[in-house]
Amino acid sequence: MAVVFSLTFALLPAQTVAQTSIHDNIRHYAEAYVSDFVQAGPDDKVTIEAANIDTRLQLSECPGMLTAEIRGSGEVRRNTHVFVQCHEQPGWQLFVPVRVKVLKPVVTAADPIARNTLLQPAQLQISYQDEVLVRGDVFDNIQAIVGTRNKRDLRPGRPILASQLCVVCKGDKVTIIAENGGLSISTQGIADEDGTFNESIRVRNSRSGRQIQGRVSEAGVVRVGL
Questions:
Q1: Exposed e or buried b for every residue in 105-124, given b needs 16+ CB within 10 A?
Q2: Which residues of the chain have pLDDT under 50?
Q3: Domain boundaries, the chain
Q4: CB-based burial of residue 4 (10 Å sphere; 0-12 exposed, 13-18 middle, 19+ buried)?
Q5: What is the 3-state secondary structure of 22-50?
Q6: 129 Cβ neighbours under 8 A, 6+ residues apart
Q7: How far is Cα of residue 160 from the mean position of the Cα atoms in its chain?
Q8: CA-CA distance, 114 to 100, in Å (whole number)?
């Protein structure tokens, strides 16, 4: 009797390890399935993690006969439930909760920046933030906003929005580029109002004094059509 008890005790850890391995394989299978449907940019950081499966569930290995699907709309959400099914005998089926997190690169202030500061690369940094929390017109390229001015104080860690920037400010000297197909003519002017990216503002030609409407394309540059 003592020998039987000893053998049984010795076998239990191996059985537990085997079941744990099967459960982990199912988790990884669900994670891999979801990863094929996640929409993310090339610079995004994606984490996909399936919840632990109750090890009390006696699940058999299922080589070659395992399927998965996302029920309902089939869309991958922040919290997605994957229906995993074994079609072998004895078969089994269960839902595996999978959590998806996509972090997007956004430009933020490296340190507090007072309003009306001419932004320089050393003042800016790239931070990765949960896409669920990212709102508004943000930037993923530091150089895109170098040379702009902030219209309000900027705090570290918070995405810098286009609405917070003055790409061309009232009174700034600007380059006015008039374009028509392949023809391009540039002249100097003065901005008569503030403007951010792609915003239409009034500028005044320095030579003629004529006021025209143009589109802000980058820091210190306004484009108009001929």
A1: bbbbbbeebeeeeebeeebb
A2: 1-16
A3: 1-164, 173-225
A4: exposed
A5: HHHHHHHHHHHHHHCCCCCCCCCEEEEEE
A6: 103, 104, 106, 159
A7: 14
A8: 36
Strand (E) positions, the chain?
A: 45-50, 66-70, 79-86, 92-109, 124-130, 149-150, 165-166, 173-180, 183-191, 200-205, 211-218, 221-225
Q: In the prediction, which pLDDT does 3 show? A: 23
Say which residue the tokens 């076998």 belong to. 11
Q: Under CATH, what is the fold of the domain 173-225?
A: SH3 type barrels. (2.30.30)
* pLDDT score at 19: 60
Q: 54: which 2 tokens?
A: 């109750």
In 3D space, the residue among 100, 17, 101, 95 whose CA is nearest the CA of residue 53 turns out to be: 95
Contacts of residue 173, defined as CB under 8 A and 6 or more positions apart, other chains included, come to 188, 189, 190, 206, 220
Predicted TM-score (pTM) of the model is 0.73
Q: What is the distance, to the nearest Å, from the Cα of residue 114 to the centroid of all Cα atoms in its chain? A: 27
Q: Which one, of 80, 152, 84, 81, lies nearest residue 119 by Cα?
A: 152
CATH architecture of the domain 1-164 equals Alpha-Beta Complex (3.90)
Instruction: Please say whether the beta carbons of 50 and 97 come within 8 A.
Output: yes
Quickly count: other Cβ atoms within 10 Å of residue 216's Cβ. 24
Residue count of the chain:
226
Give 168's strand partners.
195
Torsions phi, psi for 183 (to 5 deg):
-90, 135
Round the CA-based radius of gyration of the chain to a whole number and report it: 29
Pairing of strands 66-70, 221-225: unpaired
pLDDT at 1: 24
